[in-house]
Amino acid sequence: MPANRILPVERQLRDGSWLSRIHAHTDPAHRDPVTVRVMAYQLHGTSREGEDYRLVTSLLDARRYPARQLAALYQERWEAEAVFAELKTHQRGARIVLTSKTPDGILQQIWAHLLVHHALRELMVRTAATRSLDPDLISFTETLRSARRSVTITPGSFSP
Known about the structure:
Layout: E1 11-12, E2 18-22, E3 34-42, E4 52-57, H1 67-91, H2 103-130, H3 140-150
Antiparallel strand pairs: 1-2, 2-3, 3-4
Helix pairs in contact: 2-3
């Protein structure tokens, strides 16, 4: 949903969230609005400290699904999404494909990527610990670049 989307308050809820109504982009006549719940929150303990976010959900019951709990879960979800991006986009590279010709070889390459990712994440945790920082504040991309600069492989010396 675009950040500039206006989500008017239909009803304010006790936990600070509110009910609003939106129309599906497939409903140009705006005949069938959908009731949604909106939560405004800020991230804390991350590199995006203090940025404003809005979470829009179909979970309308504020007692059963407290806004603070949903915002925390959403932050966890985005951390998982970030790991997938780290693996697919940054570590592996968009144009690099798995090159092995056998299923076992493909599995070996996947495990190798996962092990490298784990090693980089472990390095980030240790670096953060020596500086008394939250590991989320250490950049994966910078850690990857640093690791790549420290490793030299002669072309043709290793065949997967």
